[in-house]
């Protein structure tokens, strides 16, 4: 497209210069060039935002080592599939991520033999729903129950980090090694889903607004500010594209009693964990999952103290001051919680902390998304 644009300009130049006319033609040529927007000619037509719906259609598959590889070339996933089309590449990556999420659900059910429980437990047929995964003995194991809570973002049940699943392997980014190890050591397991907070539905297209013959009602100054703001937003997203694709406009319908990670963890505690048979409950909470556990501790302190034996946090972002944790909560956390954090220090090296809550120790890595071998907490 760029070559054709330049070819068109050169053709105009050649035709103009070949004709007699001297100074008049030169002036006309300058006027013509001043009206040609070279930036506009350099823009690309953005491809449609339609992507494959299965790994097979993406031409990717997981090999025996759990690595995502192209089925023809054997190469890892390539983000920059189309050069200079970052937004399109990002949307393609997100589409693959949704497929990965479904793949992990399938592994939880088939490989880990877990079952899906719908939330809320009394949900009507037509209301938005979430779910968690339970091992067969999660509710009736009389001894031990392990609860897994991931961080905030796009990750869903069974995932620690989608990026690691795509770029490294299944074991690095999913909770499956932890679930398998827990089962071997006699734990029941609950896999929470704290980021499934709403149902996304497409907005109906709004009819074009009728403009009064006398002009819009809002003041000209306010209208100009709005147009300037909207124009800047469009430039930020679409400055590279001549014909940008329109994204679907959606509404988010909250899931009852599960509209935030904190609500979700509290709801699962009230309806599943507290009703389980296990005398000893253990948590592994990553990043925002640690904050959600502290919030649970604050709201259900007596219950948590009577059932939970230990909490392994990893790069937890909780803040006992901002969350207004009481003295008794802090004292319990110092005895029963430990936060493994990113550090250049050797694994399990004690680290200084500014907050009077749980001990902080080194995870032995500078970027922690639970790549390390799972070590199930002991009673």
UniProtKB/TrEMBL annotation:
Protein name: ARB2 cotranscriptional regulator A
Statement: the UniProt record of this protein carries the keyword rRNA processing: no
Keywords, ordered alphabetically: Signal
Biased composition (Basic and acidic residues): 219-250
GO biological process, one term: regulatory ncRNA-mediated heterochromatin formation
Signal peptide (residue range): 1-18
GO CC, one annotated term: nucleus
GO molecular function, one term: siRNA binding
Domain Arb2: from-to ranges: 51-347
Region (Disordered): 204-253
Keyword Ribonucleoprotein among record annotations: no
Pfam families: Arb2
InterPro entries attached to this UniProt entry: Arb2 (IPR048263), Arb2_dom (IPR053858)
